[in-house]
Amino acid sequence: MTGNHKDPTITRRRALAVTGGTVAAGGLAVAGYQSAFADTAADTEASASSSATSTSTGSSCMTLMTSVTEGPYYLDGALVRKDITEGKNGVPLTLRLSVVDATDGCTPVSGAAVEIWHCDAWGYYSGYTTANPGGSAPAESEDGSTANDSTYLRGYQIANANGVVKFETIFPGWYTPRTCHIHLKVHTGGQKEDGTYEGGKVNYTGQLFFPDAAAEEIFTLEPYSKHSGSYTTLDNDMVYDGGGTSSGLLTLKAVHKADPSKGYKGSITLGVDPDAENTGAGGGGGGTPPSGDAPTGTPPSDAPSASASS
To answer: Which of 76, 167, 188, 299 qualifies as a FRET site for 206, CA 20 to 30 Å off?
Structure first.
């Protein structure tokens, strides 16, 4: 796909369908965020119970999730919080992630710390806001949000007794040469301290992916449509290996079938080994921008350098 148009020459391994409808033009209404992020205690309890039941009886969770590189944009010190948007504009996305022990009958990993980070609607990461996302996009500073340039779209959540965490964020944009994705790490053995998560070890490093049909639809909306260029589909991504759920492909559900701008709910079960330790090197090439387009942004002066990709 170039710009906002699909490339008919691109072949795919599968036909990916998502619940959706007519794409709405223009910006996102506040009601969209409220609908996507609305939750009740009963809903949370039911969802957690459902996740625990399905993971304990399903066979797919017995497969360890594929570990891949953490990529070039990781920063230590993310905050423990459910809402990581900080005012960043985009299509609302609620993530429900269930962490289970794939080496012990898919039992929930209570207390696991799940850390996620991803780019904004134009492909910029906090801490690297001058790094060129490829194609043509406004400067990150032009988005008009009140987000902190060193912390937006990054955060931890601690798994409940059912191994479930929930994040409120936005649908990520893209940067050359990667497909749309979210990075994550699963930590155990540490504790919350000074608003972040300290100690313990990383058991799993991975990435979450989105069906092409959903991504291409979202990228026709504001503010995503202001980033034009060559978008990489799943088939052509250097990290996604085509393994579906076991490779991080999210299950998506539109909040309003007729209007994707109202948001999505994404879910997946993370089958991990709580006794393993993962360095973040992983596999899949790392997703570093191509030669000549290396990141030009640098982490904040009070933050550690980002880990190099594999």
So the answer is: 299
User: What is the pTM assigned to this prediction?
Assistant: 0.77
Nearest by Cα to 150 from 310, 308, 4, 306:
306
- What is the C-alpha to C-alpha distance for residues 23 and 21, in angstroms, rounded to an integer? 6
| b/e sequence 92-109, b meaning 16+ C-beta within 10 Å | bbbbbbbbbbbeeebebb
Q: Is the pLDDT at 27 greater than 50, yes or no?
A: no
CA distance 256 to 204: 33
Token pair recorded at residue 168: 């409120």
> Which residue in 41, 147, 33 sits closest to 93, CA to CA?
33
The closest alpha carbon to 28, from 267, 265, 231, 259, belongs to 259
Cross-strand pairs, 281: none
First-last CA distance in the chain: 27
Q: What is the pLDDT of residues 184-237, one digit of tens each?
A: 999 999 999 999 999 999 999 999 999 999 999 999 999 999 999 999 999 999
Q: Which H helix or E strand runs over 56?
A: helix 41-57
- pLDDT at residue number 282: 67
Backbone angles phi, psi at 264, to 5 degrees: -135, 155
Q: Is the peptide bond before 223 cis (omega within 30 degrees of 0)?
A: yes
Closest listed residue to residue 117, CA positions, set 207, 6, 213, 236: 207
